[in-house]
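User: Hi! Is it possible to get a structure for several chains at once, not just one? Here's what I have:
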Amino acid sequence: MSKSARARLVHWSTPTVSLVFGVVYLVAAWASGRPWLGVAMLAVMLAFGGGVLLAARRSETVRGLLDRRDERIVGIDLRAAAASGLAIILAVIGGAVVELARGHSGAPYTWLAAIGGVVYLAAVVVQRARS
Amino acid sequence: MELVVTGNTVRDLRVDRGLSQAQLAEAMQVSRQTINSIEVGRYTPSLGLAIALARYFGTSVEEMFHVQER
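Assistant: Yes, the chains can be modeled jointly so their relative placement is included. Here is the combined structure:
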C-alpha cells in the first residue's frame, strides 16, 4: 500500500470508529428498551465524526491528527493522550479511595486501576523489546 | 555527551530557493506549522526528517542544525 493510500485510510479511521461505536450504542440502548437514547447517542457520534472531518478541512492540526503523517503532530497526540490517561488514572484512584472510605469494595474503580496498571506494564515490556 | 540544538539554517535555505513554508511542508509531507516550528527552533525534527531536509537542500544535517555540548 502506498504512503498516500495508507494516509487516506488512516484519515477515515476516527470517523469510522465514531460510526461503529454509535451503532454499538444504538444496539445496546435498543436492547435495553431505550431506542431513542440509542438514536441520540448515534447522532452524537455521527456529529463528532462529521465535525472532525469538517475541522480537518480548515485545521492543519486536526488533519495531522487524522492522517498521522506529521511526526510533530503525532508527538503532540501522544503527549495529549498521556495527559488524558493521567487524568483518568487520577479520577479512578480518587473514585477507589472514596468508595473504600464509604465502606465499599472500591469496585469498579479498583478493577479499572488494575487494568490500567497491567496495560502500562505490558506496554513498557513491548516497547522495551521493540526499541 | 549531551548535545543541544541551538539553531538551524532551514529558513535561510528555504528563502534562498524561493520556497514558501507550505511548499517545503508539501515536499517533506509534514504540516506548514511543523516547518515553522523547526525554523524558529521550537521543534527539533526526528533524525529521519532532519536527513530528508538536508538531502532536499543538498547539505548535511550537521551543517543545517547547529549544536552545542551541554
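Chain B touches chain A at residues 29-34, 37, 43, 45-46, 48-49 (CB under 8 Å). Residues 47-56 of chain B form the longest helix (10 residues).

User: Great, thank you!
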